[in-house]
Design a protein that fits this description.
This is Glutaminase. InterPro entries: Beta-lactam/transpept-like, Glutaminase, Sc_DH/Rdtase_CS. It catalyses: L-glutamine + H2O = L-glutamate + NH4(+). It is an enzyme of class 3 (hydrolase). With 318 residues, the chain is α+β, with helices and mostly antiparallel strands. It has a single domain, classed as DD-peptidase/beta-lactamase superfamily (Beta-lactamase, 3-Layer(aba) Sandwich), CATH 3.40.710. Helices cover 45% and strands 12% of the residues. The strands form 3 sheets. It has a 5-stranded antiparallel sheet with strand order 4-3-10-9-8, sandwiched between helices. A 3-stranded antiparallel sheet has the order 5-7-6. The chain has a two-stranded antiparallel ribbon with strand order 1-2. Strand 8 and strand 9 form a beta hairpin. Helix 5 (127-140) crosses helix 9, helix 7 (165-173) crosses helix 9 (195-206) and helix 12 crosses helix 13 (257-263). The N and C termini lie close together (9 Å). Bound molecules: glutamic acid (GLU). The site of glutamic acid (GLU) has 11 residues, from loops.
Length: 318
């Protein structure tokens, strides 16, 4: 794959050119007005709808951003990738006996499929799958939250990454559906630890706050065969990085993953806080943030920005 789009005789990847391109893409995205900020908990409903950020981190270490790219926000389901990395490391191939790797074709918090399939979630990117992963972490780490937090801080090289405790608490207060998923899995024998402890880990993880710059830096290893380009550390094996990217391609964008693959063609994960990260193998990471969501739960402006950038730079992996 080549990413050498030439503009006016100069590579678009020259820092000034890339910044100008990101600026024009962000301006265009601001004309998209069809989303609605997540309102299932008050702490998310209060977030200003006009925040907008776009960051590109390339494997040579350059980070180019426009908009509110250093403002931390609730990363929500994007955190499912962090949990999955640790669970894959701990469990190896046996993880895939407890969670599948198939797209669900259902909304992210659907319950019906989980009963038909006897408590084995379709994939780790839907809520049931991420709760199962949280069970693995709670069961296999003496301090599962610290394990996630120190990994995340190391990946984005920022020691102050934290959790919004208000979001964490309201997730718990409004978590009946996630609790139903967890207890259903427990009834099938697919949750080992105490359900309340598992849910607490899951809600805590969803409440991590990071900026688009943090996110773009953190996931660079997925574009770099598992190795962090900044520290040179092998974060996951190349094979596990490929597997995570495959899951993101098939299941990372909720029930709009097929359309995202068709129109953008990149492994990606979104969260109901309005963030999206997209991995461009051997090039870098794109991270976008804008709180209003489309009907699938994906950031409307974030989708527009990533689609526009990927199309202009010819980044599709297909
Ligand atoms: N905390 C949210 C939930 O479990 C995460 C949703 C998401 O970002 O997909 O409902």
């Amino acid at each position: 794959m080549t990413h050498d789009v030439i503009s006016g005789g100069q590579s678009i990847h020259a820092p000034d050119n890339l910044k100008k391109l990101l600026q024009s893409i962000l301006q265009q995205a601001l004309t998209v007005n069809d989303g609605k900020v997540a309102d299932y908990i008050p702490a998310l409903a209060e977030v200003k709808s006009d925040y907008c950020a776009l960051t590109v981190a390339t494997l040579d270490g350059k980070v180019t951003s426009v908009g509110d790219a250093s403002t931390p926000f609730s990363i929500q389901s994007i955190s499912k990738i962090f949990g999955l990395m640790l669970a894959m490391e701990r469990m190896g191939d046996s993880l895939w006996e407890r969670v599948q790797m198939e797209p669900s074709g259902q909304p992210f918090n659907s319950i019906v499929q989980l009963e038909w399939e006897r408590g084995i979630p379709r994939n780790p990117m839907i809520n049931a799958g991420a709760i199962l992963v949280s069970d693995v972490l709670v069961s296999h780490y003496s301090a599962s939250k610290s394990a996630v937090l120190s990994m995340v801080r190391g990946l984005c090289n920022r020691d102050t990454v934290g959790v919004d405790s208000r979001v964490h608490e309201s997730e718990k207060d409004h978590g009946a559906r996630n609790a139903a998923l967890a207890y259903l899995m427990k009834s099938f024998g697919n949750i080992e630890s105490d359900v309340e402890e598992v849910l607490d880990h899951y809600f805590w993880q969803c409440a991590l706050t990071m900026s688009t710059e943090d996110l773009a830096r953190s996931f660079a290893f997925l574009a770099n065969r598992g190795k962090c380009p900044r520290s040179g550390k092998q974060i996951t094996s190349h094979r596990d990085a490929q597997r995570i990217n495959a899951l993101l391609s098939t299941s990372g964008m909720y029930d709009q993953s097929g359309q995202f693959a068709f129109t953008v063609g990149l492994p990606a994960k979104s969260g109901v806080g309005g963030g999206i990260v997209a991995i461009v193998p051997d090039y870098g990471v794109i991270a976008a943030w804008s709180p209003p969501l489309n009907s699938f739960g994906n950031s409307a402006r974030g989708m527009a920005m990533i689609r526009n950038l990927a199309n202009q730079l010819g980044l599709s992996v297909y």
